[in-house]
Amino acid sequence: MFDYGFFRFESKEDLYAKAAAFWNPGKVKLWRDAGTDLVIDRREGYFLYDMSGKRLVDLHLNGGTYNFGHRNPELVATLKSALDYFDMGNHWFPSVARAAFAEKLVGTAPGMDYALLGAGGAEAVEIAIKSARFATQRRKIVSIVKGYHGHSGLSVATGDERFSKIFLSDRPDEFSQVPFNDLDALEAVLRKRDVAAFIIETIPATYGFPMPKCRIPDDHMVSCETDAGAPGTTPS
Questions:
Q1: Alpha carbon distance, N-terminus to C-terminus of the chain
Q2: Which residues have C-beta within 8 Å of that of residue 44, sequence separation ≥ 6?
Q3: How large is the average pLDDT for residues 61-68?
């Protein structure tokens, strides 16, 4: 019996069965078929613990989410103390916490005037794309082949076709791709002057971490910084 107070599982197999039934059968099957018998239980610092108690070094860090380690004591204390005074808030009105945080965030990035806050990386990409389209009054977005920027509406359209096509989000008239490290192909697309933004991960993780061989022009570029440990995307 694995008893976590608010919920419990009879065994690891019981957890697998419920994960497949109520969460994501595809991912459960994928990892089990690959022989990766891992169910993440406790986590602390840069370590993960399987339900069986086996300790593992977390080199993935959820793509940069846990650069400060899992359950970092300072971050945990900050979140707990914040809940004594704040909640999720109301998105319609100014907020003392949101204003103070935005001021601190803008202060870390020279050239930034203000911050638009989102719930995650995919929403940050959505905000960046909509901002670029509004500013340029153009629709076209260019990304790299095998890139990944999220699974939401606009963000998944910028990603590799194995993600965009299965959700019927591939729109070649609005979203196009160029090979990574092919500056000539990128310049040929940008030369038409009908592109709202070019989006790229500074660390192309889903692609397999290829090394850049050329400098990318930063005019109307959206830099997806999630895997670099930054909180979302920054249009430049």
A1: 52
A2: 69, 70, 71
A3: 83
